[in-house]
Amino acid sequence: MSEQHTFQLDGEEIPFAAGQTIMQAAQAAGKYIPHLCWHPEFKPHGSCKLCTVKVNGRFGSSCTMEASAGQNVENRTPELDDKRRTLLQLLFVEGNHFCPSCEKSGNCLLQATAYELGMMTPHFDHFYPDRPVDASHPDVMLDFNRCILCSLCVQASELADKKFVFVMGGRGMRGRKIILNSESGRLADTDFSVEDRAASICPVGVILKKRVGFAVPYGERTYDQAPVSAVEVAK
Amino acid sequence: MSKLRVATTSLAGCFGCHMSFLDIDERLLDLLELVEFDRSPITDIKHCGPCDLGIIEGGVCNAENVHVLREFRKNCKILVAIGACAVNGGLPAQRNHLELHDILTAVYQTEGGLAHGVHIPNDPELPLPLNKVHPIHEVVKVDYFLPGCPPSGDAIWKFLTDLIAGRTPHLGHGLLHYD
Predict the structure, then answer these.
(1) Tens digit of pLDDT for each residue in A29-45?
(2) pLDDT of residue A1 exceeding 50
(3) A117 pLDDT exceeds 80?
(4) What angle in degrees, to the nearest 10, is found between the helix axes of A109-116 and A78-94?
C-alpha cells in the first residue's frame, strides 16, 4: 500500500522506496538535511554527524538510517541546528580553515554549511595544527590544513578509480589523517591523475587542481549565488 | 535619547575592516545621529573611556594588543569582534605553525638583501610579540562576532543597525561571508 511508504520530515509527508535512507528520501523529495561526509555517489560513511536528525525522539544519522513508514523525523529544529553548529565549530578549530586565502572559498561545503547554520564564530580555542602541504604532483596539490576527514577521497579512489591512492590512518584527534599510498608518502609517487573522480570529490579545499585557481572570483561562486540548502536539493 | 558611545580599534589587523566600515558611505551620517565615537581612528583619541559598544578588528599578536583589548573589555558594555583576524586569527595566524624565533631570525638576519650588521629589533618601545597569534575571544569575553575579510559595508550596516535597535544581529545569505 503506497500510503504506508511515507514518513514525516519536519511535519511534511516524504515518500520513500524500500531500502532508501532518510537522507536519500529527503534529497529525492527536495528537502535539505545538512551534511558533509555524505555524497549521493557513495556509501554513507556516517562520520561527520552533521546529518543527525531525531527519529521518533531519538538521535540518528539520517545518511545511514533506513526510512520506514510512519517515522516522525525532526530535521531543521533549533535544537538540532544548534548541535550542528557546534560540530562545525569543532571542525573549524581542529584544522586551519582560513577562508580568505583558500581557493575553495565560495565552493566549499564546510563553509557553505556554516553559513547556512549562521555560524558567526568558531567559539572554541584554536588548535592551529601543523599539517603538511603536498605540491609534488604536476597537476594537483594537497593542503591537509583543511581536511575534515570525510573520507570521500578514500571512497572515490577505491570505488570509482580502483586506485586506492588515499587511505585513512593514524589514531586520535591529532593523529588521524589521510595517508597516501606510495613509498615516499607523496602524491607524485602514486598513480593519481587529475582525471580521477577523487580529484574533484573533496568538499573542502584539500585536493586542488593546479593552474585553474581563482578562474572564478570570490563573490561569483556556487554558494555565493545561492545557499547550500538550495544548491543541494537542486542536484 | 542620548547617543551611544562607540570605540573602535585595530589590533593585529590591516585596518581593512575599518575601511570597509567607511564603505557604509552616506549612511555614516545616519549612524552619527545615533552614535558618537570614543577611541577610534576617526577621533584619534588614544585611550578608550566608558562606552556602550566596542568594535575590535584584528587578532592578538603582541603584548600591547592584549593591553588594548583588556582596556576595551573593561570599558565597553558590548564588545564585537569584526573581521576574520579578530574571529579566528586570520592572516597573522598563518605564522602559528612556525617557531617565533625562527621567523624573527629569518626576517631580520638571514633573509637575502638585508643591510650588513642588522639584528632582530629589541627597542624597549616595541611591544613583545606573542608566541602565537590568537583570536580575541581566546583572551576576553566577546559578545558578538562579525566575520569576513573584510565584512562588506552592507554587512556592517546590517549588523550595527540590528544591534543599535536592540535586535540580535542576523546576516542572511549574501551578507555572511568568511572570505
Answers:
(1) 999 999 999 999 999 99
(2) no
(3) yes
(4) 140
Q: Which residue of A has its CA nearest to B148?
A: A100
At residue A189's C-alpha, the angle toward residues A188 and A194, to 5°, is 45
Nearest to A35 by CA among A48, A22, A24: A48
Q: Which three cell numbers stand for residue A125?
A: 580555542
The C-alpha cell at A168 is: 585513512
To test the contact with chain B by mutation, choose from A85, A90, A128 the residue with the greatest count of B C-beta atoms within 10 A, namely A128
- Strands A6-9, A72-74: pairing kind: parallel
Residue A128, chain B, CB below 8 Å: the answer is: yes
For residue B31, is it within any domain? yes
Could you tell me if residue B104 is inside a domain? no
Domain total for chain B?
A: 1
> What is the arithmetic mean of pLDDT over B108-128?
91
B155 contacts B178 by C-beta, under 8 angstroms: no
Question: Quick check: A126 and B149 CB within 8 A?
Answer: no
| pLDDT reported for residue A4 | 60
A123 closest CA partner among B81, B149, B93, B7? B81
- Helix or strand holding residue A118 (H, E): none
Instruction: Find the length of chain A.
Output: 235
Q: What is the CATH number of the domain that holds B34?
A: 3.40.50.700
Is the distance from CB of A21 to CB of A63 less than 8 angstroms?
yes
* Full set of structural domains in chain A with CATH: 2-76 (3.10.20.740), 84-211 (3.30.70.20)
Residue contact A99–B149, C-beta within 8 A? yes
**Residue carrying C-alpha cell 515518500:** A15
**ipTM of the shown complex:** 0.94
For residues B13 and B85, the answer to whether their CB atoms sit within 8 Å is: yes
- Rounded to the nearest angstrom, the gap between the alpha carbon of residue A209 and the centroid of all alpha carbons in its chain is 19
The pLDDT assigned to A234 comes to: 80
- Please report whether residue B128 resides in a domain: no
